Amino acid sequence: MRRPEKVAEQVREEIAQIVGYELDDPRVAMVTVTDVRMSDNLREARVFVTASGTDDEALNALKALRKAAPYVRRQLAFNLSLRHAPEIHFIRDIVEEKAARVDDILRRIVYAPQPEAASSDDESAENPRGETEGCGMRDEG
After folding, report:
1. Domain for residue 127, yes or no?
2. What is the spatial distance between Cα 80 and Cα 10, in angstroms, rounded to a whole number?
């Protein structure tokens, strides 16, 4: 594992602790840190978070996190003894929301009523190329 990935995991765990236990803002009560991506030089951290509730509540939680970013950065530098504390950018993680939407669509497709198949005895049935069967002329002479 590369160094940025190792540091990212440590940063994710530490930010989860800071957000979960040290921030007193009620807007961040239902926030979960899902992932952290560090730049190669370890100077920037993109912190992906999910927030349960409505879209407005999630946006308010993101605003609160962005306002608390300098505090989180200071605590992170102190707790991890990093030479340079990374600049923190909180980003809303919508992967789970998209996955839930896809699951819902698939569930509706699976349980949707299926149209009845046309019988093979029907003379007006079409073959896969869209041609009507039984219309061809043969020379039987």
Report:
1. no
2. 8
- pTM, 2 dp: 0.70
Long-range contacts of the stretch 81-88 (C-beta < 8 A, 24+): 82/7, 82/42, 84/42, 84/43, 86/11, 86/38, 86/39, 86/42, 86/43, 86/44, 86/45, 87/43, 87/44, 87/45, 88/15, 88/45, 88/47
Q: Which alpha helices (DSSP H) does the chain contain, by range?
A: 3-17, 55-80, 95-111
Helix (H, G, I), strand (E, B) or coil at 34: strand
Q: Which two tokens stand for residue 70?
A: 């300098």
Q: How many domains does the chain have?
A: 1
Is pLDDT above 60 for 26? yes
Q: Would you say residue 91 lies in a domain?
A: yes
User: 3-state DSSP call for residue 134?
Assistant: coil
Mean model confidence pLDDT for the chain: 83
CATH of the domain at 90: 3.30.300.20
pLDDT digits (tens, 9 = 90+) for 57-113: 999 999 999 999 999 999 999 998 888 899 999 999 988 878 888 988 988 888 877
* The pair of three-digit structure tokens given for residue 96, joined into one six-digit string: 């789970």
